[in-house]
Design brief:
The chain is built from 23 helices and 19 strands. The protein is α/β, with parallel strands linked by helices.
Length: about 625
Amino acid sequence: MPMTEQATGAHHPQPRPRSSGQHSAPEYVTGAQSLVRSLEEVGADTVFGIPGGAILPAYDPLMDSSRVRHVLVRHEQGAGHAATGYAQATGRVGVCMATSGPGATNLVTPIADAHMDSVPLVAITGQVASKAIGTDAFQEADIVGITMPITKHNFLVTRAEDIPRVIAQAFHIASTGRPGPVLVDIAKDALQAKTTFSWPPTMDLPGYRPVTKPHAKQIREAAKLITAARRPVLYVGGGVLKAGATAELKVLAELTGAPVTTTLMALGAFPDSHPQHVGMPGMHGAVTAVTALQKADLIVALGARFDDRVTGKLDSFAPHARIVHADIDPAEIGKNRAADVPIVGDAREVIADLVQAVQKEHNEGHRGDYTAWWNDLNRWRETYPLGYDQPEDGSLSPQQVIERIGRLAPEGTIFAAGVGQHQMWAAHFIQYDRPATWLNSGGAGTMGYAVPAAMGAKAGAPDRAVWAIDGDGCFQMTNQELTTCALNNIPIKVAVINNGALGMVRQWQTLFYNQRYSNTVLHSGPGADGRQTGSGTRVPDFVKLSEAMGCHAIRCEDPADLDKVIEEANAINDRPVVVDFIVHEDAMVWPMVAAGTSNDEIMAARDVRPDFGDNEDD
C-alpha cells in the first residue's frame, strides 16, 4: 500500500529509543522476545490488551519485562480507546494488543476512531500461522485487509527477523507527519521462531517523506492577506495540538489581533478565557464563532479540515472569505474548500514562520484594522452567550452538573467525553485553558469512548485528575473497563449524565420526528411512555453496577447536593468513582445548525434565530 500522508498536524515526538544509538550486540531470541525488546527500545511503557491463542507467545516474555506495563482490559475495544486516551493525554504513541480473529476485529472501531482524529496508535495483533493464512483457520481474519482503509499503514509479519524493523517503522509512521494508527499483524509461527535481535534496525520507508517546512512564498502571501483583511478569523483545528504549537498560536493571535475559533478537536489549543477566543464553531458551536466564519473575509485554517460539522451546507459556507489553509497533509488542502493560499507543513513551523512574516508586514507599515470587526463580534457575544435554563420541576440540569464538575475539578484535570449531548455540554460549559485536557471522539463519534479513554489518560498521566463525562447510553457500552481500573489502580472519576435516553437522538426526534421517541428510551421496556421519574425503576442501577466493579458510587438527584457530591468524588483517589447524576430528560443542546442546512440558519435556542442586521452582510 502506498504510504501517503493523511493528517492535520504533527504531534509531540515519541521518546527516543533508550539505546545508546550504537547497534547492540545480537541476541539469540524468539520472535516474541524480539517483539517485547523492540517495544522497550521504541519507548513504549504501557500496552493495553487481552491475550489469546495467536498472540499468546508474545505474552510470555511480556511477563518478564520491567519496562513495559501491560494493562489487562475486559474488551479489546477498551484496549484501543485506552491507547487513544493515553496518546491524546501524553502525546506519545498509544499501544494496544489483541489476538487474531475476533480479538483483532474488536479493535476495528478504536482504529477507525484514531484514524479520523489523527491519533498516533500502534495496534499489534496475533495472526494464525503463516501456512494457515487464507485457509479459514480457527480464529483467522484478514485484519490487514479489513483495516487498510482506516490505518495510516499496516504490516503483515511472517518472518521473525522482520519484527524489530517493522515495530520501529510502525512507531515512526504513527508519530510523524499526520499522526495516525498503524496495525502490525504477526503470524504465530513468526513469534515462535528463533531469530537474532539487535537495535536499532535499519528502516526502509521509500516514499515516506512528510513535508514539515512550509514554502516561504506561501507564508509571505498568507501574511499579506492577514494584514490586508478587515474580518479575519483564525480557524484552529486539532493539528495545532498534535504539533505542540499552542505557544506559537498564542503569539500569532496576539500579534494579529484576529479572533480565534477552536474546533471540537482543538479545545485547549488556545485558552477559552482569552479575550480573542470567540468559541467553538460547528453544528453546536457558539453563535459568535459560527457567525464569525460566515461573515469573515479571510479564514486562516491551521491544522483543520473543513469538515461537514463545521461548514454546514458547504456551498453556503463563508461565502465572502478567502482561504489560507495550512496542513501537514496535502490531501486535506482543497478537499472540501478551495484554498487561495495552500500551505503544506507542520503547524508549529507554519505558525512560527507566519509570526515572522506578519511582524515583517507590520514593520513595513501594513497592519490590519479590525476595530469594526471586533465591535460586531463583541455585540454578538453579548447578545447570544452560551447558556441554559434550569428545569421548572426542580430537577438537575445536565449543563449545570457539567459546569460544576469543571469549576470544582483540580487544576490540570483531563476531561474525556463520550458522544452525544453530554459531549457538547462538556465542550461548552467546561473551560479549557491548557492543551491535552480535553479528549473526545470527534470524527467517528464513537459511543463508549469516554471510560476506556479516561483509563488510558490516567495510566499515562497518573498525577493528573481524570473525569469521564459520559451519558447513560455510552456508559452501557464500555463500563466493564471500570473493573480494569479498579484492579490496576487507575482511579478515574466518571459522571454519568443519566437522562434515561439516547439524548442526542431523542433531541432530533423532538425537533424533526414529531416527538415520536422510537427506541431511544433506555430505562423502560416496550410499551412504556418513556418518561423519566426520579424514583422509578432503573435498569441497570448504575450505583450497584459500579460498586460491583470495585468503584465508589454515588447517586445525585437534588441540585442542593450537587457541589457536595462532586467534592466527595474529587476527594477519593484510591479507587474509581462513579456518580449517577439523574438529570432532566428534556434538556437540549443549543446553539444548533440542523444537518444539511446553512450555517446562516443557526438557532441560538429553540425558535430563536439570531438577528444580525443587513448592514453586516457587506
